[in-house]
Amino acid sequence: MAKQEDIFKNVISHAKEYGFIFPSSEIYDGLSAVYDYAQNGVELKKNIREYWWRAMVQMHENIVGLDAAILMHPTTWKASGHVDAFNDPLIDNKDSKKRYRADVLIEDYAEKLNQKAEKEIEKARARFGEAFDEQQYRTTNPRVMEYLSKKKEILERMAKSLDSGDLDDVKALIEELEIACPESGSKNWTEVRQFNLMFGTKLGASAENAMDLYLRPETAQGIFVNFLNVQKTGRMKIPFGIAQTGKAFRNEIVARQFIFRMREFEQMEMQFFVKPGEEIKWYEYWKETRLKWHQSLGLGNENYRFHDHEKLAHYANAAADIEFNFPFGFKELEGIHSRTDFDLKAHEQYSGKKLQYFDTEENKNYVPYVVETSVGLDRMFLAVFSKSLVEETLEDGTTRTVLRLPSVLAPTKAAVLPLVKKDGLPEIAKQIIDDLKWEFNVTYDEKDAVGRRYRRQDALGTPFCITVDHQTIEDQTVTLRHRDSMMQDRVKIDALRDIINENVSVKNWLLKAK
Fold first, then answer.
1. Is 252 known to sit in a ligand binding site?
2. Hey, how many other C-beta atoms are within 10 angstroms of the C-beta on 164?
3. pLDDT tens-place string over residues 297-336
4. Integer Cα distance of 205 and 198 in angstroms
5. What pLDDT sits at residue 254?
6. Is 6 one of the annotated binding-site residues?
7. Is 305 annotated as a binding residue?
8. Is 372 labeled as ligand-binding?
9. Which of 76, 208, 284, 452 could disulfide-link 448, Cβ–Cβ 3.0 to 4.6 Å?
């Protein structure tokens, strides 16, 4: 556990030191669980967003985009259930005075049981080698079966209690498991109570006439209320999807783990409207499709897993998370939900407007069912960043810090370095930049010895370094250094564009998702 904590501390430190993420309003001592994306972070975040958008919208003829307003009519949130049901179960420790989400405390306990089972499996794998049958071991080894069975039992009981609103049993479960406060080790807990997560605000010029509004807690409702507008103006036929990226706001009392859980965050969501009765088929399709998209980035297939929900939201008939192995364990990265027709029917009821689709093949109107895919952009950033950051020992015994970002996402694709700041080398370097900057984000770096410049670009995640030296003047070739392998090639200047494009093009990376 200590090692995991150290890795996470290094992630947070590196993000600040190299201009990816800063604490918000830091000169005023910051604002809890609010962060600013710095000069390199904003580029990485933009590239992740673009990679998602290209895969979701540009690659699907029946999916279009939307950018709905953050402020919406307050009845929207009554219809969606957020006013009455958008709550987290919170519990306070009486000794440390710290507040926690009760379900997260229980889930963390269950994850520790899972980790114990995985350690037993890894020990057996090392002992038996190639002859090891993991599936058989999972289902026959008493210790592994006990860990996994207890985990399942705990999560099922928690889901049942939360679903029925039995918060007393949630507290009883915490006490039975002897879950202690992570801060103080105390087991002296208050009762569990529900807390609504929406931020309230006002709309109006005067306090007396101002309308009570909410900052949106999710982007999905902007899609639902525009369903008919998009369908008619776009002449969309079922099945079709509407995609959106944008900010959402939740008054997280237990915001933690850096940018994993924030009060202001960004979502990438797609709502896919289907014929009633076909929703589970499309639910399975999007589960498979979205997992392939994640795996296309090459962060390691072993770092992803599905988690099927024991407790379904009030609107869903099927739900699963794609979980990622963050430095603090497997946690939700993306949700895929079959939302039935709840949302459109609810907005029909509250607005008095018909939100139905006329199916020309069946010659009838119906309210479509919806399958949702929703991934947190900030969580995606953290997944990519944390898994890419590596401390590497080289053959000569020295170490280097390298940010092995997928090159398609890297903030800067190439750094151009004149070997020395004279003899016309800086001028050639800047000519190369002027040529490449039309297609790629490139940078110029002339400070320090070239070896130190390589290390700096490694830490920034730059896939290529292009060094201009005296031979460049003679034959128009440069040294092209590859970040991950540190291999160096001598290439023609006019070949640089094609080489870089081959490595960073969205097309080449997305083809891995097929």
1. yes
2. 10
3. 999 999 999 998 877 777 788 999 999 999 988 999 999 9
4. 22
5. 64
6. no
7. no
8. yes
9. 452
